[in-house]
Design brief:
By secondary structure, this protein is mainly alpha-helical. The protein has 17 helices and no strands.
Length: 408
């Protein structure tokens, strides 16, 4: 295949991830649901996002295992069915039955929605990276940019639909849209018939998942991803609410999605041109800047500082999955990338539990103020800095024992 063909496939893959990225727009749905179900607490609503992130990771892991048995098209079609069932199920919730509706929301949006997105996410990224062995950071960054922008692009559509047709009908429309796009797009996601680019002249190396799980650097790196993810999700989960709290429309909070996407491309390019050590410290710096700006904005009431903080946190959170994908491919090798990346995706599980839980708890205890939540972001940024030192030291030590050092 020509290089032009691989760029077409990358474009389609990115489009699919844009539609799947709507899962990150939960904060836009949270207020409409709270207006219908007035007895649902902030923590109960936040749990919906947490469950969806957990099953997003599960879906990604399953996709990695299925990659050895099924064509990418079949995995994406399975994902399309999951998302259709999930979104249609949400559209059929009963406004008069609060208790059962909350359980069903967790099942349809959390399990079916999260799993469906995870299936496509891992399948598309794992497949497209085989077309770009020479630019893994840029390739992952572009696709993950689409995923990050999904909440903003489709979020604005969803907001308009909710205003005109209500939240339940909106979910039905979105479910059909996503099903059609994934169904058609699945025909463009295919594995190259022969190794592409750099892979043609290099032996495909790689550590099997069992070996990776016994490597100390992997676990410390995964903890670093969790810490960075916690800080990001403390903001992503409440972006619309933060904007409203400081006098801006809810959709302004979704601007974090733009920089969530930008962070993926920017840091992906930095990774390709330098290494993981540089990319990781850039991510930590973004997080420090975001926490400082948000805290300063909360203390002064400045919406401009809040906006700067949201943008920086978007960059930080967006960089995280790109670094995770590229680090796993470069350091542990492309041979078992789909499964290893599926394992690495599980860093989102504790992050999705810890981040929103801490944020919701701190905001509730402070009577709706965000000061303590923003201070917590700085604490996690400091932890991220310490773990960065540990990861770099471990990688250098492990490479020192090899006859040929692994890139990272």
């Amino acid at each position: 295949m020509t290089n032009n063909k691989r760029w077409l496939y990358l474009f389609v893959g990115t489009l699919l991830l844009i539609f799947c990225g709507l899962i990150y727009g939960w904060s836009l749905f949270r207020t409409p649901f709270s207006e219908v179900y007035t007895d649902w607490s902030l923590s109960q609503l936040s749990m919906t996002f947490t469950i969806s992130m957990i099953f997003f990771c599960v879906g990604g892991f399953v996709a990695g295992k299925l990659a050895a048995k099924l064509k990418p098209q079949m995995i994406i079609l399975l994902s399309a069915v999951f998302l259709l069932v999930g979104f249609f199920g949400v559209s059929r919730l009963n406004p008069e039955d609060s208790a059962s509706s909350l359980t069903l929301l967790y099942i349809f949006y959390g399990f079916f929605g999260g799993s469906g997105v995870g299936l496509t996410y891992n399948c598309v990224i794992g497949t497209m990276n085989k077309w770009f062995p020479d630019k893994p950071g840029l390739c992952s960054g572009i696709m993950m940019m689409g995923f990050g922008l999904g909440a903003l692009i489709l979020g604005s559509v969803a907001t308009s639909l909710i205003a005109s047709k209500g939240v339940f009908t909106t979910f039905m429309i979105l479910g059909i849209m996503i099903f059609v796009v994934l169904g058609v797009g699945s025909f463009f996601i295919k594995v190259p018939d022969a190794p592409v680019g750099a892979a043609q002249t290099k032996t495909v190396y790689g550590d099997a998942p069992g070996t990776v799980l016994k490597t100390a650097s992997f676990w410390v790196f995964l903890i670093w991803c969790v810490v960075i993810g916690v800080g990001g999700l403390m903001v992503i989960n409440s972006a619309a609410s933060i904007a409203v709290a400081f006098g801006a429309p809810a959709i302004v909070g979704m601007v974090v999605s733009v920089f969530n996407g930008a962070g993926r491309v920017i840091v992906g390019s930095i990774y390709d041109k330098t290494n993981g050590k540089v990319a990781m410290i850039v991510d930590v710096i973004f997080m420090f800047c975001g926490g400082i700006a948000l805290l300063a904005g909360a203390k002064t009431g400045s919406m401009i500082l809040i906006l700067v903080g949201l943008l920086a946190m978007g960059l930080s959170y967006g960089a995280n999955p790109t670094i995770c994908s590229t680090f796993i491919q470069k350091y542990y090798g492309p041979k078992y990338f789909a499964v290893n990346f599926g394992v690495g995706m599980f860093n989102l599980v504790p992050a999705a539990i810890i981040g929103p839980t801490i944020s919701s708890s701190l905001v509730e205890k402070s009577g709706g103020a965000y000061d303590s939540s923003f201070m917590a972001i700085l604490v996690f940024a400091a932890l991220g800095l310490g773990l960065w030192f540990a990861v770099c030291k471990m990688i250098d030590k492990e490479n020192g024992k090899r006859t040929e050092a692994r890139p990272y």
